[in-house]
């Protein structure tokens, strides 16, 4: 099967958009990711997927900590910046939460210590033990077929 067919098929799954952050001796680093999921309630675990060649991979491996900020529907520009789609340098104001850098005003901020890491294909799957969560009452930014969108609640009658 062709790589483009696989990528196109995977883009048909609507996801939320996150920014993964970590901190090292060089400062705070972030990357946009939609490969994020809940793994377990007991213990509380989440999973992120980071490409083997991404600079973030070595940074998380060294720090053994990361945070996940689930972006709000008004934070598309933040997603684009951390995805490398906006090339101009910006001074990003991070918020400290539980000792971790997070994106302010996100729908959810989750702080994690690396619980385990698995290399699978061309990505490392980091399982994070959740250390704290902060929730804001906002609507999420979504991604479908490579396009940003927003969440519309469907109510049953």
Automatic annotation (TrEMBL):
Domain Flavin reductase like: start-end pairs: 10-150
EC number(s) on file: 1.-.-.-
Domain of life: Bacteria
GO molecular function, one term: oxidoreductase activity
InterPro entries for this protein: Flavin_Rdtase-like_dom, NADH-dep_flavin_reductase, Split_barrel_FMN-bd
SUPFAM superfamilies from the UniProt entry: FMN-binding split barrel (SSF50475)
Keywords linked to the UniProt accession: Oxidoreductase
Protein name: Flavin reductase family protein
